[in-house]
Amino acid sequence: MIYFLCFVLFCVGLYGILVKRNLIKIIIGMSILDYASYLFLVLVGFRMEGRAPIYDKAQEVKNMVDPIPQALVLTAIVIGLAVLALMISIAVRLYEKYGTYDITEIRKLRG
Amino acid sequence: MTLIVKEVTRLTVGLIFLFGIYIMLHGHLTPGGGFAGGVIVALSFIHMVLAYGGDFATKKMNSRIATILESLGGLMFLSLALLGLIFAGVFFLNLLPKGMPFELKSAGIIPLCNIAICIKVGAGLFLVFTLLTMFKPGGDK
Amino acid sequence: MTRLLPFFIALPLGCAFLVNLFKNKKAADVLANLCTFILLVLSLATISIVKAHGIVVYKVGNWIPPIGISMVVDGLTVFLLVTVNLVSFLSSLYSIDYMEKYTAKPKFYSLFLLMLTGMNGLIVTGDLFNMFVFLELAGVASYALVAFGTEAEELEASFKYMILSSLSASFVLLGVTMIYSYTSSLNMADVALTLAQKSSSPDVTILFIAVLFLMGFGLKAAIVPFHPWLPDAHPSAPAPISAMLSGVLIKALGIYAMLRVFFCILGASPLFLETLCILGILSMIVGVLLAIGQWDVKRLFAYHSISQVGYVLLGIGLGTPLGILGGLFHLFNHSMFKSLLFLNSGSLDYAAGTRNLKEMGGLKDAMPVTEKTSLVASLSISGIPPFNGFWSKLFIIVACVQARHPGYALWAIIGSLLTLSSFMKVMRYAFYGMPKKAYASLKEAPSSMQAAMIILAIICLLGGVLLFPLFRNALLQPAVDVLLNGKNYATIVFSQLK
Question: What CATH code would you report for A2-53+64-110?
Answer without folding.
Answer: 1.10.287.3510
